[in-house]
């Protein structure tokens, strides 16, 4: 009798879970504005189409934001369901509400590594080659919620320059995303700026992945026009985050879709992860604890 009751309870919970998953009428993917909106939407459309087919959800919508914070607030408020962002953005969410999202996956580079680098670049014709050459000059950051474009440089640079960023440089500012930041350096609005790349592969190709690689592929950057002034320690690749307001069964379907994506549609996977990347691997909050701690110490939230 007890066995029958238990089996009935399990069956009812499965049915309830399926009903909750079926109640999800739309999935919303957030885009953080790290490159221009049209390109981000185009690179994500294949994911939207694939998710719709894999989950059975009637509609998958793409929500571009002009900055990182728009997506952070959307994930915190439950108006964004899925987003791939840097570790500092996840840290901002985890500090405010540890239960809002789960980091479920991250990607690996072409060499299998699961990290990337903050890369500081300057115009080649500026004569700037080292951090010493930048003393008293203007430094640009990508976005205040960017891991490679703000957080990591503010943690790592003081150890190398022997003073705070504020004291060492005459001025700092933000470029409004990684792509715009590099364009601002080329336009001489900053003497140097911090962006990101895989650090793997050929310099002339902007490495195998990251913002520089994307810009080279789009024909808006010639790597011969810039030099690498500084490269950070390895940063853990940013997470694919899923909102915990989604039913557990739907979150499982979303995770299964992304895990299979590199095998089923590698071109789509490369577009979405911005480079010649290899695979998705599972992660959890512990993978990003060092970034959470760093954000608490530098930004406070």
Automatic annotation (TrEMBL):
The keyword Electron transport does not apply. Keywords: Signal. GO terms for cellular component: ATP-binding cassette (ABC) transporter complex. SUPFAM superfamilies: Periplasmic binding protein-like II. GO terms for biological process: organic phosphonate transport; transmembrane transport. Residues 1-21 form the signal peptide. InterPro entries: PhnD, Phosphnate-bd. Transmembrane segments: none annotated. Gene3D superfamilies: Periplasmic binding protein-like II. It comes from the Bacteria. PANTHER family: PHOSPHONATES-BINDING PERIPLASMIC PROTEIN. Belongs to the phosphate/phosphite/phosphonate binding protein family. This is Phosphonate ABC transporter substrate-binding protein. It comes from Aliirhizobium smilacinae. The lineage of its organism: Bacteria, Pseudomonadati, Pseudomonadota, Alphaproteobacteria, Hyphomicrobiales. The gene is phnD.
